[in-house]
Design brief:
Distance between the termini: 57 Å
Structural class: alpha+beta
Length: 584
């Protein structure tokens, strides 16, 4: 062994021990006849002292050490005269008796420190160096601990971890697939799985009544902070269950991990909200309930008063922002500019300020009397000192914009701290969503989601009103995971495919093996998948899942470290019988 101790384990109780450590040189400094070297490994940092009195040759060798040199040092553990309370090893140091340079290092492109001088792009290019820093290392250690604890929890509840294929059949009704050409089957392609959905259902048909997998999934979609082209799900499926059984099982898992990682004990059941109410009160199917400011609809109060914007609008609603009546004109103009951004799309913003003395001031004061504005305030349960922010327009678009404004105000008022967690379940999603461009229904989740049994009679007569037996778990405005009870009856599955526009031939081409399996006694089943990267990043209180992944891609889906994706050799294309026709 190159070491008898790590750089993070030695304490005063080890005083006078002869030890050998190995690691990277973090920094060095000279003080009179002594040279001090901080040596770092995965476990911590230990200070090493080279003394002229003890060994001048070692001091000379130590003076030539550069940052990130890999070294092996032997010496005796001593108590530090000047202790460092910021280090677990800060009470001791090693008085060196031997030094070996195991490998030299070029000067790194950025400092390997917690507060590094390297920007994101540079650190991603040299990710193997970035991972030496404490924060990225701690994130991966947390990921490891959570993975093991999730496995322990599910194993204790009789789940089997079963791997499913990575090279699968490309199917529609989801994000874009990554496709892989098959050399042995020219002109045919595999796809990388967006999830193990079909295979976990087949495992239920096979009699494995509780399956899970920390599954690698792939989606060719535009990226953002909580997306990567390849990501990991805690993927689970259960047989002979109803919605309540699945929710209870995985609410238990989430509570267990919060207690294990953060010491937070959720003793009450997570609140539940229907999809309709989530959209009505928050404008989002993943509402952040750490703070209030629920929407209040004002449509009936504002129409017919001569203000064309509201008279002509399908929907008017607002939020009451507590304690912000003192907002300046500049601040309200900033909020107006915020909602007018193209990605939000509102045409304007109406504000009403309720002063501490009860007087009213509004951007639409010339269209509405004080009494009318006070009616708004009463409807919104406003108090003196509050600010009302109101939007009008088409219902869905206005709700979305008001939801973004609500979150913005939550951020401005410090109501969304990363160390406060507010989980909830969103239930009763629509089974279908209508697409105006293609004039057809699409599955809101996937085509195997079971309709609410009460709504089955509406499948043909009022398709858009059919609710799904689906559920999402949401924490702090982020969808942590979701699932559904699956269709296990072949005739109902055929109906679903028909409503989604599949011909029998097309349905059989895409999903024939699953439809055939259902003919042989498929049990009632359902499941859920948690976004593992999101879960880790949430508990690490990070802004992006990228920081929880060892070697992530950037926002263009590129790995700037290994320079992928990249062109392949012409010989490889010929072997695959492919020709490239790149468009400008």
């Amino acid at each position: 062994m190159y070491r008898t101790a790590t750089c993070g384990e030695l304490r005063l109780s080890d005083r006078n021990k002869e030890v050998t450590i190995a690691g990277w040189v973090q920094r060095s400094r000279k003080m009179g006849g002594m040279t001090f070297i901080d040596v770092r490994d995965r476990y911590g940092i230990t200070q090493v002292v080279f003394s002229n009195e003890l060994n001048p040759e070692l001091v000379e060798a130590a003076s030539k050490l550069g940052r990130e040199y890999v070294v092996q040092i032997t010496g005796k553990v001593e108590e530090r005269a000047s202790k460092n309370p910021n280090l677990p090893t800060g009470d001791i140091e090693i008085l060196a008796t031997d030094l070996k340079v195991l490998n030299k290092s070029e000067v790194p492109p950025f400092t390997i420190e917690e507060n590094t001088d390297g920007g994101d792009d540079l650190r991603m290019k040299y990710r193997y160096l970035d991972l030496r820093r404490p924060s990225p290392r701690a994130n991966l250690e947390l990921r490891h601990r959570m993975a093991f604890e999730i496995r322990r929890y599910l194993d204790a509840n009789h789940f089997l971890e079963i791997e499913t294929p990575i090279l699968v059949k490309s199917t529609p009704e989801g994000a874009r697939d990554f496709v892989v050409p098959s050399r042995m089957n020219p002109g045919e392609f595999y796809a990388l799985p967006q999830s193990p959905q079909i295979f976990k259902q087949l495992l239920m048909v096979s009699g494995f009544d509780r399956y899970f997998q920390l599954a690698k999934c792939f989606r060719d979609e535009d990226l953002r902070a909580d997306r990567q082209p390849e990501f990991t799900q805690v993927d689970c499926e259960m047989s002979f269950v109803e919605q309540e059984d699945v929710i209870n099982m995985f609410e238990g898992l989430v509570k267990h991990i919060f207690k294990y990682v953060k010491g937070i004990d959720f003793t009450e059941a997570f609140p539940r909200i229907t999809w309709d109410d989530a959209m009505k009160y928050y404008g989002s199917d993943k509402p952040d309930i750490r703070f209030g400011m629920k929407f209040v609809e004002l449509t009936d109060l504002v129409k017919g008063k001569g203000f064309a914007v509201m008279d002509d609008a399908e929907y008017t609603a607002g939020i009451c922002v507590p304690g912000c009546a003192g907002y300046t004109r500049k601040q309200t103009d900033e909020l107006t500019d915020f909602v007018k951004r193209p990605q939000i799309g509102a045409k304007g913003l109406v504000w009403v300020k309720i002063a501490e003395d009860g007087s009213i001031k509004s951007s639409v004061g010339k269209f509405f009397t004080d009494e009318q504005l006070k009616e708004w305030a009463s409807a919104m349960n406003a108090n003196p000192g509050d600010l009302l922010l109101i939007l009008s327009g088409a219902t869905a678009k206005t709700r979305k914009a008001l939801g973004e404004l609500r979150l913005e105000m939550g951020n401005r008022l410090g109501l969304r701290p990363k160390n406060v967690f507010a989980p909830l379940w969103v239930i009763d999603f629509p089974l279908f969503e209508w697409d105006e461009e293609t004039q057809r229904y699409y599955a809101m989740h996937h085509p195997f989601t079971a309709p609410n049994p009460e709504d089955i009679p509406l499948l043909h007569s009022d398709t858009g009103k059919v609710r799904a037996t689906a559920y999402d778990i949401v924490v702090n405005g982020t969808e942590l995971g979701g699932g559904s009870i699956r269709i296990h009856d072949s005739r109902l599955q055929d109906t679903m495919f028909e409503l989604l526009g599949f011909t029998p031939e097309k349905a059989h081409e895409q999903f024939g093996f699953l439809m055939n399996a259902f003919k042989y006694g498929a049990p009632p089943h359902g499941g859920l998948a948690l976004g593992f990267d999101r879960f880790v990043s949430m508990l690490a209180e990070l802004d992006s899942i990228r920081d929880t992944i060892a070697f992530p891609k950037n926002n263009s889906g590129r790995d700037v470290m290994n320079e992928s994706p990249s062109p392949i050799d012409e010989a490889q294309l010929e072997e695959l019988q492919l020709k490239l026709d790149l468009k400008d």
